[in-house]
Amino acid sequence: MEQYWPFIVIVGSIIGFALGVVFSRRSIGDLRNNLEQQEALTEKHISESREARESLARTEAERDASKDQLRQVQEDRQSLKETFQAFSAEQLEKNRKQFLDHAEQRLGASEEKHVSELEKRHESIENQFLLFKDQMERFQDQHQKIEKSRTEAFTSLNEHVKQLSDQTLKVGEEARSLSTALKGSSQKRGKWGEMALENICEMAGMTEHCDFVRQDQDSGDKRPDLVVRVPGEGKIPIDAKVPYSDYERAIESNDPEERDRWFVAHGKTVRATMIELAKRDYPGQVGGRVDFTVMFIPIESVAAAAFAAQPDLQEEAIKKKILITTPVTLIALLKTVAIYWQQERLAENAQKIGEEASQLHDRLKKFCEHMGKVGINLNRAVKTYNDAVGSFEGRVIPKARTIENLTAKAGGDQLDSLKSLDGVARSMSPELVDPTSIDSEVIDHVPAEED
Question: Are 185 and 63 within one domain?
Fold first, then answer.
C-alpha cells in the first residue's frame, strides 16, 4: 500500500488544482495561500513517501536477514540436536563400556583369585582323596588279612585238636619202636629226646617261634634244648630228659616186688633229674619274663610211672618252677602259645587298623575343611557378582533410560539387564569342620557409583 503513495499525492494535487479553478472566484491571495499549502503538503507527502520507501526497504532487508537468521537457527538447532544425540549415545555407550570394563576387571580379578584358589583347593582335595583312597585300600587289605587269619586260626584249631590225638598215638608208637635204641647210652637217649622235641614243635606249628640249641658232646655248657618265644618278649626254656634205665628194668622184671622197687627207683631218678634241672636256672640264662622251665619226657609211660611212684612229684616240681610235660601236654602248651601268637598278630593288626582309621578320620576332617572353604569362597563370589549387578541395575540402567527418553531414542536397542545368581553353596556339617581352620579374609566387592 505504501508504494502507491506518490501517485496518490499527484492525483490529490491535480484534484486540488481543479478545485482551485472551480473556486477561482476566490481571491488570488487565498489561492496562493492554498497553493503554497498544497505545495507544502505535497512536499511533505513526497518526503513521507520517500521515508516510507526507505523504511519499507529497511523492513524488507530486516525480514530477509531474519529469514536467514531463522534458517541458520533451524540449521544450528538440527545440527545441535544431531550432535547432542550422537554425544549422548556415545557418552552412554562409553559410560556403559567403562562400567562393564570396570566390573569385568574387578570380577575378573576376583574370579582369577577364586579360580586360582579353587584350583589349589581342587589339587589339595585330589591329593587328600588319593591319600584317602590309599588309606581305604590299605584298610581293606588289613581287614581282609585279619578276617583271613582269624578264619584260618579257628578253622584249623579243630584240625589241630584232631591231629593231636593222631600225633600222640604216632609219637607213642615211635617211642615204643625206639625203646630198643633207648637202651643205649644216655647221650643217645638225649639225642632222641631232642629229635622228639623238634617233631612236636613242627606238629604244633611253632617252628618259627622256637630256637633249638644243639648240645656239644665235648662242651661243658649247660643250655636248654629249646627256647620257645612267647608274645611280650617272653621265653620258655625246654629241656628234654629221658630217664629210661630204671623204667626199663622195671618193665622187664617178672617179679612184682622187684618191679615195684625199680619203679620207686625210677621215680626217685626223675625227681633227682627235676631238682638238678631247677638248679641250672635256665630262665635266668635265656632272659625274658617267664620264670619256669619245662622238663620234657618224650615217653608217656615213663612219665606216668614216675608220677605213680612219686604222687607229689608234679607239685614239688611246680614249687621249684619246673613243669614236667609229656608229648600230649607239651603239644597242648605249644598250641596255647601259638594261639597267643595269633592273638598278638590280631592285636597288632587291630592297632594298625586303629592307626589307619585315625589317619583316615584326620584326612576326612581336613577334606571337609577344604570343602567348607570352597563353599564359603563360592558364596563370596556370588555375593560380589550380585553386588555388581545391583549397582548396575540401580545406578546405571535408570540414567541410561532417562538419556534415551530425552534423546527420543526409545525405539533403539536398550541396555540388557544382568541377572543375579540365587544359588548358595551347601554348608558342611559343623561337626565335620573346624571353625578355627577357616580364614576370615574378606573379598572386596565392586563399589557402587555415587550420585
Answer: no
Q: For position 268, what pLDDT does the model report?
A: 92
Angle at CA 102, nearest 5°, toward 114 and 405? Answer: 135
* CA-based nearest residue to 388, from 328, 327, 445, 305: 445
Decide if 94 contacts 433 (C-beta within 8 A).
Answer: no
Top pLDDT among 319 and 436 is at 319
> What predicted TM-score, i.e. pTM, was given to this entire model?
0.47
Lowest mean pLDDT among 10-24, 45-59, 308-322, 350-364: 10-24
Which of 298, 325, 352 corresponds to the end of one domain? 325
Same domain, 50 and 182: no
Tens of pLDDT, residue by residue over 341-355, are 888 888 888 888 888
Q: Checking DSSP bridges between strand 234-240 and strand 226-230, what pairing results, if any? A: antiparallel
Query: What pLDDT score does 354 carry?
Result: 81
* DSSP-derived pairing of the beta strands 293-296 and 322-325: parallel
Buried b or exposed e, range 40-53, using 16+ CB within 10 angstroms:
eebeebeeebeebe
The whole domain housing 36 covers 2-74
pLDDT score recorded for residue 308: 92
Q: Does any domain span residue 95?
A: no
Gap between the Cα atoms of 325 and 303, Å rounded: 8
Rounded Cα–Cα distance for residues 327 and 212 (Å):
17
Looking at residue 310, which CATH number applies to its domain?
3.40.1350
Q: How many domains does the chain have?
A: 2
Distance CA 158, CA 154 (A): 7
Element (H, E) at 228: strand 226-230
Integer Cα distance of 295 and 167 in angstroms: 20
Q: Is the pLDDT of residue 435 over 70?
A: no
Pairing of strands 234-240, 210-212: unpaired
Which residue has 567348607 as its cell numbers? 372
> Is 102 exposed, middle or buried (CB count within 10 Å of its CB: 0-12, 13-18, 19+)?
middle
**Do both 182 and 319 map to the same domain?**
yes
Q: For residue 252, tell me if it sits in a domain.
A: yes
Is 383 part of a structural domain of the chain?
no
